[in-house]
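Q: Give me a protein?
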Amino acid sequence: MVQRWLSVVLDLVTTAIAILVVGLAVALRSNSGLTGVALVNVMAITETLQLLIMQWSSLETSLGAVSRTEDYAKTTEVESTDENIEPGLRDWPSEGSISFNGVSVRHAPDKPEVLHNITFNIPSGAKVGMFGRSGSGKSSLISTPFGMTEITSGSVIVDGTDISQVSPLRLRGSIIGLPQQDYIIPGLSLRDNIAPTYSNRNGEGEGEQRPDDERIIYTLKLICLWDKIRSFHPEATRDTDILDMTLSSDNSNDMMLSPGQMRLLCLARTILRVRPGSIVVLDEPMSVMDSELRSQIRHLFNKDDGPFGKCTVLMVQHHMDTLLDFDLALFLVNGRISEMGHPRELLNKENGELRSLWTSNTHIEEYI
């Protein structure tokens, strides 16, 4: 709409200039050839003015971006980047227990609190589902163990250690997370995307090292992605050659994954980091998957001998058919825990909010 209005205004300006030129030519009895040349140049002035205004707008936008970047660099507090391992935390967490004790959080000092007096205990190895409508505080809750929110009161204890006493770098490297937004690095191989090296910048130290190709391939088979990846290059003679394929985000000759396949790839990346006693935080891990694929993936989270069998799982879910897969369910409303307990107990609760959300998605009589 703005561009159309700009074109109309410039056309009117050009018309006014053309009328002025013709009027002067008639009044001054100018040479007709010179008048024609003048009119041709006047008619071309519209495109020139439009290009000038667009470039000026682009310049203003770029200068604004530079200014905001500079303000961010000057005003944002720099987090600690100490890479030294704190004493006693080399293998932390090793059990996977989590306690929220009266936790209230906000996203910035000048922002209101988004979680209020959150209290619950998660034993080692438990599978916890977090439910609630949009804006209820689920994302803020799962961001808190990573130190991505500001705790205004209370404490979060992981394996007996208050996370406020752990450096952000160490904290985010110790707790495993799968965000809702999938990401790949175009131009890198499948191997480099699914299993980057977790050692320090110089490739030294005690960081996690890349798993071998056999384990990567086994994980891709586990999540039902390997056959699809092989189909991109059926002429490959060795499985390891498939891992050298380059990932792409456009319609090039490289491997381009659909949203569902990209989600599975990110899930495989998470599985490769899991070890006994890990804490795994998953934000909608089965989003953009159809019901058939979701039913195949669900068993990975609740089988004792599965990849998540010996670790603690916190999962945000919108698919209510997974409710009974969890040991503990939390239902959040406006940043507070409205209901908490075993899923079957909550479904038997008359007039319960989780029961109400469930009945809007399925037939509750089949499950209680």
Summary: The longest strand covers residues 113-122. Residues 32-75 form the longest helix (44 residues).
